[in-house]
Amino acid sequence: MKQIHSNVLTYRGSHYEFGVMQGERLKNTPLYAYQQKQKERNRRRFTVDSADAFRMFRSYHPGIYEELTGLSDALGLSIDETLMDYSGFQQEWRINSGCSIVAGNDFLARNYDYHPKTYEGRFLLYQPSEQEYFATIGPTQRILGRIDGMNEKGLTIGYNFVHQRFPEEGFICNMLSRIILETCSTTEEAIEKLTEMPHRHSFNYVINDAAGVRRVVEGSPRGTAVREASFSTNHFEVLTKENRHHLVDSKRRFDNIHKHYTENINAAEGFSLLNDPQHDVFSDQYRNWGGTIHTSVYKPKELRMEFAIGNQQPTEVDFGSWLKGEELSFSQFTGDLDTDVRIPYMGE
């Protein structure tokens, strides 16, 4: 067993100021040293055209470009380097994850299954000062992206990896999720934007809002499809030609969820379904890039969420109270993973 943690960061202000704060918090950490060590290998695999990236953010979320500028200034990097490393536009890294998502009338629950060495240990609550953007809560990926999350309107989102073959120009999963959370208030709006935005790779995006409207958007570089569904794993049900050939584990978890799912399932039952090993959805396959690192449960109607690292009871976060100005009483989540792999953000 190995104890790991996720630091909880909060910020209220402009996107540029938010970028500066994150850069200042990041630059002297083991996570940043690891990211810098990896970047030369990544640059041999792909490039980012700065003009293309600016055009994309100007079209879909200009505030994030301002955040990238603040991050660039704080880290002492050129804007080209920052776009390459953190923009979520045209980025590449190894993806072979699991992930399972369940949604009900008043919740969305999600297992994040991946290799622990990729984890950042960062969880953010951010309230933009610009009126056109929504406040959000959730864990990060590649600093600016979001693994899953909820916004102040109660819109929630999580994604499942399907494949990264035949990529095309577009945003990666975590940046698509970040843009959705800060710019959309309902499932319908999120579907419209996910259909419009370009996708770099193929993922399922599971969405639920404060009205309990649940949809799965199957997104790929070659198009999207929308289906009414309340749970998802790592394969498409409509765009089946996009699926990988080896879907045994994805379909096993899908069938296990289907077996226990009921239309009146509540948030506590959704958490148990994903996090309790007896249901055979939670995974300890960390060395195989498919172990459950965290389980998130978002409650759109209450503006509350629960978060657990590994297999344990979750910690509740009152997002609604924080939005009203109350500060959190804790600054870190901790938990245990059944693994001995080295975790770079912890300095290993």
TrEMBL record:
Domain Peptidase C45 hydrolase: 105-312
GO molecular function annotations of the record: hydrolase activity
Keywords: Hydrolase
Transmembrane domains' residue ranges: none
InterPro entries assigned to the protein according to its UniProt record, in alphabetical order: C45_proenzyme-like (IPR047794), Ntn_hydrolases_N (IPR029055), Peptidase_C45 (IPR047801), Peptidase_C45_hydrolase (IPR005079)
This protein's record includes keyword Hydrolase: yes
Pfam families: AAT
Positions in coiled-coil regions: none
PANTHER family hit by this protein: BETA-ALANYL-DOPAMINE_CARCININE HYDROLASE, PEPTIDASE C45
Protein name: Predicted choloylglycine hydrolase
Record organism: Terribacillus saccharophilus
